[in-house]
Amino acid sequence: MTSLQAFHKIKDLHEREKKEKQKHYQEQVDAFESVATNLYEMLKKKEAAEQNFHEGLTHSKVKAQSFMHHRRYVDQLENEIIRLQPEVQQARAQMESAQARLSSAHMEVKKFEKLIDNKLERHRQWLKEEENKQMDELSTRQYLTYKNR
């Protein structure tokens, strides 16, 4: 059973690595959600600003200064959106990479769990075979002892 203890130690090591990778993955998910939420808010602000401006155009006269002010505000939002899009892509790539590493660590743990289960099953079968051999030997002795009387 020495090798079984070694398998347990290796499995424990892989489980610790898996937990670290799980923690790293969660950090990457949180980072992605934060950046993606910022991008979403900017897109929402731009859409609301354009909708309000168009509603203002249909209901009343708009001064040229309002046009310029609106255009400047929308340009600022678009610049912010353009700045955030690569950050979102990078955060998504890091999150997906962390997920792949987590999946790999999970498979390693499962592999060692399967090895341990197989080893235990072979040991149980060996014990059962030994028990059967002992029972056969005992039966034979009893038969011979009874026969000799």
From TrEMBL:
Main localization (coarse): membrane
Compositional bias (Basic and acidic residues): 9-26
Cell location: Cell membrane
Membrane topology: Peripheral membrane protein
Segments passing through the bilayer: none
Organism: Halobacillus amylolyticus
Parts forming coiled coils: 74-115
Pfam families: FliJ (PF02050)
UniProt entry keywords in alphabetical sequence: Bacterial flagellum biogenesis, Bacterial flagellum protein export, Cell membrane, Cell projection, Chemotaxis, Cilium, Coiled coil, Flagellum, Membrane, Protein transport, Transport
UniProt cross-references to InterPro entries, sorted A to Z: Flag_assembly_chemotaxis_eff, Flagell_FliJ
Gene coding for it: fliJ
UniProt region (Disordered), positions on chain: 1-26
Protein family per UniProt: Belongs to the FliJ family.
Protein name: Flagellar FliJ protein
